[in-house]
Amino acid sequence: MSELIEYKCPCCAGKLEFNSGTQNMKCPFCESEFDVDTVQQYNEELAAASGNDMKWDSQAGGQWDNGETNGMNVYSCQSCGAEIITDSTTGASSCPYCDAPIVMSGSFAGDLKPDYVIPFKLDKKAAKAALNKHMEGKRLLPKVFKDENHIDEIKGVYVPVWLFDADADANIIYKAEKVKRWSDSQFNYVETSYYSAVRSGDISFERVPVDGSSKMPDDLMESIEPFNFSDAVDFKTAYLSGYLADRYDVSAEQSIARANERIKNSTEAAFRETVNGYDTVKAESTNIKLNNSKAKYALYPVWLLNTTWNGNKYTFAMNGQTGKFVGDLPVDSGAAAKWFAGITAVSTAVLFGLAFLLGIV
Length: 361
Prior knowledge:
By secondary structure, the chain is an alpha+beta fold. The chain is built from 6 helices and 14 strands. The chain has 3 domains: 48 residues, no CATH class; 272 residues, no CATH class; 31 residues.
């Protein structure tokens, strides 16, 4: 006996039932009706656009040559667990992620060798200037924060990044709506029409980045994107001189889920741009198959500053190649209260003056 197929309502996803009176499929929840052929086609397309096949060849990075890691030291943070790599001429006393003291734990050995590195193009002076500009005009910024934050402790860090290439073969169904509103002397009317927009095609991705450090928040790293890969060069240890390098603790395999999420979101957004003429559009079902997928390992330049004020941690980051700067600033609650009180007083004075002119008071 064949398995009974359950047909979903394209409008509300409820279970459709056959209506003998109209000879159509009817939804008992939203009362929408569809002919049998339309429902059959919709369910076939829904089945074709469900499930993903997003597998990767994640053999990124290479092996170090003999003697290539000589003189490279590893510093460990006893607070957050970060491991920082430097050359013998570059000392490190505090963690770039939490500012806690770090101690040398030994010589560097093992791990994969990066395939590429984007060298720093902007120096510490530029990073300090960007931080000062970031704080300009912030009336509610605590004075003590601006005066005492240790901008001299801005650190140049090479962040480990896994780069994913793939060709995506996608089938996506978008649920779309058109809303019509009108009125008469008695009622306001709203008519909502539902549509399924099917899109299929291929799209290629090159070097989708996922940072390989658990200490570097993904949202912070992605906020200072993009990095211009045209400046990337084959990795050489000389580029580490004078800078810190974070030792990756998230493997390429562990980064695949984030890469797949970024590819899925980007694919849905790209195909979404072809669905026009509707009031609302959202992806209902997505099927993506990856081909020619592979990963590489690179180091990206970032200027980092972590500072604490009033018991809270604040992190600032600047793209060491483009200068894009991000970071949240604290608000002095006392200054904010005075500022809002001033605004209220001015507004009250204006209203009183207006009332006086109008002869109300």
